[in-house]
Amino acid sequence: MMLAQLVLPLLLSGAAGGGNEIVLILDNSCSMGVESRDDRGRRYPANDPERAAVLGTLIVEGLARGSADRVGVLAFGDSERDPPRPAQDADAIRALPYSQGTFYKRPLEEAGNRLRSSTLPNRLFLFFTDGAPQDLKDPSEGPRTLGVSEGADFETLVIGLFGSEEIRQTGEQFLRPLVRNPQDLVFVQKPREVIEAFTRGYARVLGSRPETGSLSPGESKTFEVGKYVVEVLVATASSSPGPAYTAKLEGPQGNVPVQASGDNGCPPGVRYGGAPKLCQPPHRHYQVFRAPNSPDQPSRWTLSLPKGAGDIDYGLILRYDLEASLAVPATARVGEPVRLDARLLFQGKTFDDETFFQADGFAAVATLDGQEVPLRHEGGGRFVADWTPSQLSRDGAPTPVQVTFRNAWMEQRARRNVQVEGFLDLALVPHPASIDFGQWRGERSETRRCVTVDLSRSTNADRVPITCTAQGTVEDGVLSCGPVAGSEADLGNGRKGQPLKYEVCFAAEGCCGQMAPHGLGVLFSATHPHYAASAVTVPAVVKVDETGFLRCWWPWLTLAAGMLGFGWIVAGFVRPHDFDPAASVYVAGSEMGLKRASALTLRETPGGTRGFYRNARMCLNAGGDFVRAPRAAVLVLEAGPGGSTRFVTAAGLERKVQRTGKWEPVPAEELAIGYTPNTVYRLGSLYLKWN
User: What's the CA gap between 355 and 581, in Å, rounded?
Assistant: First the structure.
């Protein structure tokens, strides 16, 4: 499958007219096929023990064989002074020996010379490697040696196969400068992925979009070929090492003969001591087909694999006799619209088939400043777009403009260079010429005032990109400016220009202080430094009164008050003390009566449980009745912390001394520590005892 993809680009390129010059540098260092060890004795297996890179190179050579394409293969020498080893045919490719090092410089130099001197219209540099160079110290040396930095007109594709992340990082810094586009650097992890990388990379670089797949023994693949296809290419390769196979391709004219076939084994008699099995069977085999097709009518083709062989991968390429064309002025001026006129050519004439344009995901786009812009079909096969250059060509070099026509099978591109020069006259006339945001008082949250500035009275502000920048700084405030959506100028023919209205806003932060700043404004200026003298500053005036403490903080104050109030209420119920649940009292009119009296739990007396900010208490009046109000009582006992008690009111309270049987007044200091359990107390005609 990967092999077929490889073929595809080559043929496509050759079809476009004149063929392709393909220079392929093949890494033949020992690490590709031979196990190695580092200074510490660590073993590193070969990166390509199946010689997949050799197989991919053979497929490229086979596809180009007998066509207008020209393939040259270069391999490393045994030292940095040795010239690269060339290979032009399949036998020479198989016979390339493994070298003693990874030497980039001489092969890059030779590849650049071949590509720059080639007279073929399409040129490709292809490089496959599994290591970092031993003869380059600075990554910038590679592109200088190859000639990429000189603006040479050839495509690039670099494929890296690395055995460890550390080696990959080292190698990448040398490989990335060698490609013209970031997507031209491809990394693979396994040898079998090498063929696919070769194939898909070629397809993308040379303008082909192949279909790939696999076949098992006894299976077949039938595919429809539409009009305008002038050649059908199919590449096949065995999925794994094994015996040779014989695939079959049938078209409208019957069986298609094989154009090239073989395996990726070594020449007879070659052996490598460090890899005794490298050159021994089984090998991977390949077959490629290339046949003409009538572009005037659809056709059907079938690829089949007879029974008895192993699985194969295939790639199908349909080469259209279509070529992209782009008409654009050689020069343009900054800010002036330029019409891009693109079309496909079939046999040298404008191609116009609406059915073709509506099928297979057809698309036409222009690439300008790294962005894709859709082309619109104006009929008659003409695809157009309008481009307004916003800056001069960089460093005096022309600005590249590319159009691409693509569908599921093909991708045709045309490039032109446009020298963008000169500048438009620019005079900025903002309205209003000054901004007064007015006066207001700050609030707890951000407050904002906005004014719209109109540039429609300016000269060429509709064509030249403008920026609006806030000037000055303010504590507690922010000045901002930005274009108003939908205010883009109408340049005619459905083209949109630059925004002509800008919204300027001043935002005062929440809880701000007094503000009356000086030196505020917005600067309107063109993005290109050429127009620096046309910049205009619009002054801005604003006055914001201080928010005020209460206005700013009242929600927090209210919340704090609420939390304090809630805490006060909760404390009112939680903080007071209760009597011990088992505490009780006996009350009688005589001491003997205490023995007959029933105990009354203190918590069951009126007021005997705690209340809101009130400790539990026991109140007893002169008649021996329990009451709730302390002022009506002659004795008041109040609960304290931890089950303790104290006498709040107890004038004349006496206690009986058990040792002498006499009564004595309770000292004032003992009233504060409450009653003593099982002690008899007397208050007037009342006798009491607490348990």
Answer: 98
